[in-house]
Specification:
Elements lengths: L33 E5 L2 H11 L2 E4 L2 E2 L2 E2 L2 E6 L2 E7 L4 H14 L3 E5 L14 E9 L13 E2 L2 H13 L4 E8 L8 H12 L1
């Protein structure tokens, strides 16, 4: 009989050096220290067309290129990474980008919601993350939720300064929809909120 209390996906290796360490195969490059990560390929295409973004690295994976770009913003260099959808791919691309030299990251992506008042274009400052996928356990010990107060204050301050409408909320990290039953999982969240 299988012991279902032990699930290897939730193991956390405390070693700072990865089993396959990107910094051992990727040399540091002249890249901006700040990087915006986005899952929106059309936005990346527009940056190249309209803002003359320069390709720093192609980062070719099985599903195609994930370019690391550079643009000028407020007189400073800014990197933009077209990430892939799914935590394993996004994590791998992030580690490669860190090995190249980027150090500060903001992720801009899309998400579903269980709150009807949140529509397209709303900013959500993540208050905490309920972890329900396997990738994050390679980076942090097993916890039900994760929160970072200092980073949250910083994100709120930037959005307030820009006059952006925002909401503070917990998020639920999930594997891609093809591998999990989204509709079944939504009922579990509703029960937890009750």
């Amino acid at each position: 009989m299988t012991n279902i209390a032990y699930i290897p996906l939730t193991e956390h290796d405390v070693a700072r050096t990865a089993f396959i360490e990107p910094s051992q195969t990727i040399s540091p490059q002249d890249v901006p220290s700040a990087c915006v990560i986005t899952f929106f390929g059309d936005v990346v295409d527009r940056l190249v067309e309209r803002r003359g973004a320069r390709v720093l690295s192609q980062n070719r994976w099985e599903d195609g290129p994930h370019p690391l770009l550079e643009i000028g913003h407020d007189g400073k260099r800014l990197a933009v990474l077209r990430s892939g959808v799914g935590a394993p791919l996004a994590g791998g691309l992030l580690e490669e980008t860190i090995a190249m030299g980027c150090r500060a990251f903001v992720v801009c992506g899309g998400a579903g919601t269980l709150h009807g008042e949140l529509t397209l274009g709303h900013f959500v400052v993540v208050a905490s993350a309920i972890r329900d996928e396997g990738t994050s356990y390679h980076y942090l010990p097993r916890l039900e939720t994760f929160s970072s107060t200092g980073r949250r204050r910083g994100a709120r301050g930037v959005l307030e300064a820009g006059g952006a409408v925002r909401r503070r909320s917990a998020v639920w990290t999930m594997p891609t929809l093809r591998t999990r039953g989204l509709h079944r999982r939504s009922r579990l969240v509703e029960r937890k909120d009750a």
